[in-house]
């Protein structure tokens, strides 16, 4: 009994903390974080820890003391009265046990009923679905079936997962592709098992309303983090995924869970539309929150901490933190470059992004007007400010991806594509604009390269062409002579390993203050190229 | 009689229409091979069919027979389709079928012949 109470109280503190954090940060942090926190809370509710917790003790001691006194004074009292305290506790325990049985029973009954419905599902043999399933390469065998009794896809089973798809939309439509991806993420993450654990925790703590709050919110967060994973994995447009979700909900003729369900769906759609790359800042904040929340509550809940239990618990969560931070790459430009050659990135151009931003502003205005959850005018302004900042970044030449197509959700925008080198001899600094990625966006590119057009060099779709041939390497540098020696001011370089022609700009009238006037373009031989590269330090 | 049969029930009816009277046990065996249903599942579906009046049960041996013909179900479903999706006009359905090129040349021929015969 005591352990139960202590578990419930400490779990309640944790749950309350999570709820507060969630309401503040739900759309700004990776949803997986919340799933981990909920799992921690559920574990706390299921696994008793043996640390001392004073409150229950205090309540039982006085009761015993009273009974002892009574027994001493009135020895004629029947043994039943002297055991009054113990009886009371027994009654509570029985009530508790009854509650657990009833709640567990209700869940079990509901589960069995839906299993019965689903048992009549028919096997599905669809090429697209089959190939997608075989792509998964899981140890467990996944079965896909179709049923005319469900309106949206679902999964059950832990060891032999089964996905049930509705008859509409057809199995090879785009919406089904999303749905299938969504279910497969659930399977891979053993979400069914996690949900069982959460439900068990709520049943054991049925008398604690926070336990049910946890169950409800945790289920929502599991869905949200699943959506997140799908968006990351498929690299589709958020709107398409959100629309597919809405369509599945529309087909639901009988509103299940009434208001409960509607809020959850709305939350999902907003989360999807607000989805953006997780930043390193987000990971750090997440890590701090996990560590902070669990250590803070561990300190609160144990007066005489048993080092092993409390520390073990904190280390456990630190390991989970480590898991999430593992995926953050080094924050330097070279990594991003390597990254880019592997994945097919499509970068935003300034114009495309402004256009998109205009539409997005409209959409957000609608959300605020319709009173959508989590979209106050403040939220809207903040979000728009973020987007405008990104527009500015794009203007400054920072590559920003259009689709979320990388294996790693964490893409760091390099802070600058400019860097400085210092001349050792006299400490002068030179600023270099690194333009070595083909098609790197810089708003001034097109404008800049027009100056070479009269010499037959054109810039199209992010690539340079000389006399119609793709350029492999181009540079426009000037050697500015200064009394003390030759210094080079890098003006512009371009490199495309797949190009053919090597061109350099020829200028005249260079002096201290200017790089001179453009007088022509020259094609370089291999030798000259090597020499030039050495000069430029490439 | 408004009969709305689910896919699962149609599967059972299929067997009855194709093979005539069959024992529930045999139906369960066949379906277990065809679609992987457990015995309990099949028996539940059979019971549903009986409750809906689509099938009948006779003893001894729990023999099932179809109480409604495939044609009747087809008609009912088609009428529902026409009412729901084609404003109750079968012309529109025919036009849609012809227009969507779902009919082979032979099918069109036989349709034409049918029209001729009906005249």
Topology:
The complex is a heterodimer of chains A (538) and B (119).
Chain A: H1 2-25, H2 31-46, H3 54-73, H4 79-82, H5 84-118, E1 122-123, H6 127-136, E2 143-147, E3 154-156, E4 162-166, H7 174-188, H8 191-204, H9 209-234, H10 238-250, H11 258-273, H12 280-301, H13 307-326, H14 333-342, H15 350-369, H16 377-395, E5 418-422, E6 429-433, H17 444-449, E7 457-460, E8 463-466, E9 469-482, E10 485-495, E11 501-508, E12 517-523, H18 526-536
Parallel strand pairs in A: 2-4, 9-11
Antiparallel strand pairs in A: 1-2, 3-4, 5-6, 7-8, 8-9, 9-10, 11-12
Helix pairs in contact in A: 1-2, 1-9, 1-12, 2-8, 2-9, 5-8, 7-9, 7-10, 8-9, 9-11, 10-11, 12-13, 15-16
Chain B: H1 7-19, E1 22-23, H2 24-35, H3 39-52, E2 55-58, E3 63-66, H4 70-85, H5 90-99, H6 105-118
Antiparallel strand pairs in B: 1-3, 2-3
The end-to-end span of chain B amounts to: 31 Å
Helix content of chain A: 55-70%
- DSSP helical segment count of chain A: 18
Topology, number of strands of chain B:
3
Structural class of chain A: alpha+beta
- Oligomeric grouping of the chains: heterodimer
Indicate the overall shape of chain B: elongated
Q: Give the overall form of chain A.
A: elongated
Low-confidence stretches of chain A: 50-77, 253-260, 300-344, 404-416, 435-443
Low-confidence stretches of chain B: none
Share in helix of chain B: 55-70%
The fraction of residues in strands of chain B falls at: 5-15%
Rg calc of chain B: 18 Å
Determine the most extensive contact between two protein chains: A-B, 10 and 12 residues
Describe it.
The complex is a heterodimer of chains A (538) and B (119). Chain A is 56% helix and 14% strand. Chain A is α+β, with helices and mostly antiparallel strands and 538 residues long. Chain A is elongated and about 105 Å long. Chain B is elongated, with a radius of gyration of 18 Å. Chain B has a three-stranded antiparallel beta sheet with strand order 1-3-2. Chain B contains six helices and three strands. Chain B is mainly α. Chain B has helices at residues 7-19, 24-35, 39-52, 70-85, 90-99, 105-118, and strands at 22-23, 55-58, 63-66. In chain B, α1 crosses α3 (39-52) and α2 (24-35) packs across α3. The A-B interface holds A 116, 119-123, 147-149, 167 and B 6-8, 11, 35-38, 40-41, 44-45.
